[in-house]
Amino acid sequence: MKSLRFILPLLVFVVLLMFLWVGLSLNPREVPSPLVGKPAPAFQLARLDDPAKTLADKDLRGQVWLLNVWASWCVSCMEEHPVLVELSKQGVVPVYGLNYKDQLAAAQEWLARNGNPYALSMIDPDGKVGIDYGVYGVPETYVIDKAGVIRYKQIGPVTPKMLSERILPLVKRLQAS
Amino acid sequence: MRWVFAVMLCLLPALGGAKEAVPAADDPVLEQRLMRLAKELRCLVCQNESLADSHADLANDLRDQIRDQMRAGQSDEQIKSWLTQRYGDFVLYRTPVKSTTVVLWFGPFVLLLAGLAGLFLYLRRRRTRVGQPGLTPEERTRARALLQEADPDAACR
Questions:
Q1: Buried (b) or exposed (e) across A99-122, using 16+ Cβ within 10 A?
Q2: Is residue B57 predicted with pLDDT exceeding 80?
Q3: Could you tell me if B122 lies within 8 Å of chain A, comparing CB atoms?
Q4: Full-prediction pTM beyond 0.80?
Q5: Strand positions, DSSP E, B4-148
Q6: CA distance A142 to B155
Q7: How far apart are the two ends of chain B, measured CA to CA in Å?
Q8: Triad A155, B90, B65: Cα angle to 5°
Q9: CA–CA separation, A135 vs A156, rounded Å?
Q10: Which of chain A's termini has less CB crowding within 10 Å, N or C?
């Protein structure tokens, strides 16, 4: 009983320390998306390569695909761009771009200069579809399954590590099912 | 003289609050309703600012969307749920009471009650201890006998 008196404060302290430790390792910028596990919001948007044509979410059913939100004004997009270009060369999974609140000419030029990893890009000049997808910081990347359900959301640039450890294994699993 | 400065200092924060996002002046009633609602909502870009205060691009867009929805006759609750569907409960400054937030809402009160109970038990135990006389008469005579036995003068002799 006596030893408990001394061990108890120590235990309380250790528990507190663990809470603080976990709290410090969390990134407040990464807000968990309520959309994961829900059907991807519907859209029908003009294509960046040819604004006269449109692309809708229904056109992409039946395949696993990545939705990458990008813009020519977005600095971090430059950071993840080589990763996406590399991924597109592998041809494992198609990446569709959502060109978010950008200017057509600037976006087209950006792709021409830096390489185009996208199967297609659609344009969302006023950011309305972005809001439907809960976009708050470009770049963001979504993994969407064959039935059109969002399975994963990455906020911020896709790193090679995130790609090989989380996104690609998930894509493979979804493709197999 | 000094109290004049004190009064001026107290008035300073009122000046600081003046700078807020510019409202579109076309419909003051709607604008007021928007601002009242937006104060309860968190901007996702500048996370410590409300949607009413934030100058972030996204905050502007969201305010526009909320305006549109208000014009379309949506209630505040409908607009809030529209936002939480996209951005989660994180956008609400008033966290809803749910199974995942029960600890957040009631944990502090449980801790307070536990603390009060601990304090009460401690005080009660201390009172019974203080209430006791120091030594019983038998203990007193025994102590006196022991002290005499260990008489320091006796050791020196």
A1: bbbbeeeebbebbeeeebbbebbb
A2: yes
A3: no
A4: no
A5: none
A6: 90
A7: 79
A8: 85
A9: 11
A10: N
